[in-house]
Amino acid sequence: MSSNTQGSYRPIDSKREEFRKYLERAGVMDALTKVLVMLYEEADKPQDAMEFVIKNLCADRPEMAELENLRSNVEALQLKVQALEEQKARLKQRLAVYEPVDQDEEEEEEEEDGGGDDEGEEGDVGRTSEQIPPAQVQPEA
Known about the structure:
The chain is mostly helical. The protein has 2 domains: 1-60, no CATH class; 62-113. 69% of the residues lie in helices and 0% in strands. It has helices at 2-26, 28-41, 49-58, 62-98, 103-113. Helix 2 crosses helix 3.
């Protein structure tokens, strides 16, 4: 019975050893050891040790640096879009002074804009109201 007991544990031990070697080859063991040493050497231990491990384990990966870079680019572009939307609104107000639009045209423009989807207006950015041609109004039948 003792030989059967040892025989049944041997495959599990060999599987564990094989898995351990796999983790070492992949660099997982070194990365985990490095992060755990960093946590051990921290003077002020963080409240959430798991968060510390996850943050520091992924910090060295280039994908994380790229992700942070992309996030900051998205924030900058969102601010730029907001500034351009405000500029567009100011320019529309200025244009209204020079070329008043009747109520029917204004409603048509809003429908064409589609709630902020300004596809055809990119070429008008930076042009003064004198340079923008007046809208072609066709009489209704």
